[in-house]
Amino acid sequence: MLPVLRDLLRYNRAFATGVILLAFVAGVAAMSVFSPYPPNDSFVVPPDLPPSWPHILGTTSRGQDVFWQLTFAIRNTLLFGFAVALLSRVISLAVGLVAGYKGGIADRVLMSINDTFIVMPLFPILVLFYFVMRDRMSWVWLALVMACLGWAYDARLIRSVAMSLRTREFTETGIFSGMSTRQILTQEHLPYVMPIVFSTAMNNINWSIGLEVTLSVLGFTDINTPTIGVMIYWANQHTAMVAGVWWWIFFPVMLVVATFVGLFLLAVSMNEYIDPRSRLSRMRT
Amino acid sequence: MRGYSIYLLGRLGQFALVVFIGINIAFVITHATPIDPVEQTITAATQFGSTSPEAIAMMRQSLRELYGVGGSLLEQYLVFWKRVAVGDFGPSLSAFPTPVMDLIGRALPWTVGLLLVSTVIAWLLGNLLGGLAGYYRDSRLLQFAGILAMAFHPIPYYIVAFVLVIVFGYVWPVLPISGGYAMNMKQGFDLEFFASVLQHAILPVLSLILVGLGGWFMGMRSLVSNIVADDYVGYAELAGVNRRRILGSYVMRNALVPQITALAMSIGAIFTGAIITEQVFGYPGIGSLLVSAVHAGDYSLVLGIATVSIFAVSVAVLAVDLLYPFLDPRVGVR
Of B316, B298, B318, which is closest to residue B92 (Cα–Cα)? Predict the structure, then answer.
């Protein structure tokens, strides 16, 4: 594992860039521990100050320090993304491995349901969810619902790997030595799909953060827990762009874009690592 | 011919399943949550001034009927399906007494137009450029295009639209950033109105294309670079077939087949992007209607939009699926 990471860092520019971007973002999130102000307190600093010392990224119209607010926001946003990715990985692994291994009618049924979730327009459903939850909406609920809706595409990828694993000799050896289906799936097949699980997890985090930002910006989440989207929501509420308080919007947007690009580069370079054909074609050029 | 009918039946079955599961999700979300939409509407309606208890009781009764939440859970479920089947979600509360379906019907053409134009352009352009980039791997220009596509692709619709609004609204105000046509204009089928609609569509369409293009580009590039390594392409090159012909009829033609499947699979996500984009640009489509319905607390309208969206997306997926046999003749033989 470690030598692979070292080689990727040294020879794959996309991977190295992604790691640097994400390390920076994670560093900002980790700074939230040192924040002198609690995340939800407002009017603790003079409002509308442009970036300068000691408020390096300026202050908001609600009297919050943009930098410290940003550390909480990105921390919560990342936590949200990881929670969704983790939960949806469980579902997509279960569906993908079972469908790929069982084949036949089980595969047909599971993939029909799977394709249904792929094409389902999620945004109206999430808005409907917010509409009936209203004030009880919290990011835990949102993460749960999004994990239940966002596993399908990755389950399909995992299934395609599992299908080829089924015909391999070690699977037959496992069956003949009396392993149960569950044992074969968890002990024999799971390690083989782990790389693809990681790379799809990156894309899944991107997807969930994107939707969370969108919903929050519209005010369709719990607007009292700071996330990147909630920060932009409050900035819009105070018409920050018109008032010239651009730093309130600019820095959250830049940080979340850095997160997106970083995660995406990791996913792309991992895919390349998994698929040796594209690695070969890179080496030739 | 048998192959076609089997394919057709399978696709229709999938279509029915999407609608069925989607409607069920909508039902579960609206009925399994602890919050009662009737009580919510009553609270909202009575928070200003005092209302007599008898009036509230009458209101509760009629709202129950309006929302279809009276009786047992099974009865509610059947009522829910009946409404979906006949397409009647009752009158809208925020635009009383206009029926919900009328409001959706007015907004839907805008969304469909926006989606259709931007998806077709993004898909064609992305596949064309991606195909070229996969075939002519040494071209500096196409390598640069690849980097651009990679940079834009992961950014969500909202952020791209938002940045475009800032750039063209505050920094360099040359294009209209809000609305579907000029505010003071009468809607009609004349040239002036048409020009205004086009002008207002530029930014929303542009933002949808910017986000959508990268995915098609990268998908096509990797497909083409795999196909180029196949034996039959090498053979065609040795046989002296025109390079342009190899790219067009040998390589891209085959790579388009999985891209059509990908298009069908991503329609739901594109639709989500379109309604977000609409909201940012104040475009008079489904997205803007949905957001204003939530702010107005209009239960019937929100539910109606969610249901119609599920249905509309399934129809679009079915339409793409029906195009598929024209590109892949193997469907008819299987």
Answer: B298
CA A221 to chain centre: 17
For A44-97, the pLDDT digits (tens) are: 788 777 887 788 888 888 888 889 989 999 999 999 999 999 999 999 999 999
A34 vs chain B: nearest CA distance in angstroms? 29
- Other Cβ atoms less than 10 A from the Cβ of B238: the count is 8
Question: What are the residue ranges of helices labelled H in A41-103?
Answer: 66-102
Where residue A48 falls (left for φ over 0; alpha for ψ -120 to 50; beta otherwise) is left
The larger pLDDT score, comparing residue B66 to residue B281, is at: B281
Please report residues of B whose CB lies closer than 8 A to that of A213: 156, 158-159
Q: What is the band of B188 on the pLDDT scale with cuts at 50, 70, 90?
A: low
- The hierarchical CATH code for the domain A2-32+57-281 is 1.10.3720.10
Which value, in Å, is the radius of gyration of the alpha carbons in chain A? 22
In terms of pTM, does the model score above 0.95?
no
Which tokens belong to A10?
């040294």
Provide the residue count of chain A: 285
B128-142 burial: b if 16+ Cβ within 10 Å, else e: ebbbbbbbebeeeeb
Q: Do A210 and B309 touch (CB under 8 A)?
A: no
Span B19-56, pLDDT tens digits:
999 988 888 888 776 667 777 777 777 776 677 777 77
**Quick one: which of B265, B168, B272, B256 has its CA closest to B211?**
B272
| Residue range A218-230: mean pLDDT, rounded | 87
Nearest to A148 by CA among A94, A109, A189: A94
At A248, which helix (H) or strand (E)? Answer: helix A247-274
Interchain CB distance below 8 Å, B21 and A120: yes
* DSSP string over B145-177: HHHHHHHHTTS-HHHHHHHHHHIIIIIS--S--
Counting residues of chain A whose pLDDT is more than 90, the rounded percentage is 20
**CB within 8 Å: A136 and B150:** no
Reported ipTM exceeds the 0.85 cut? no
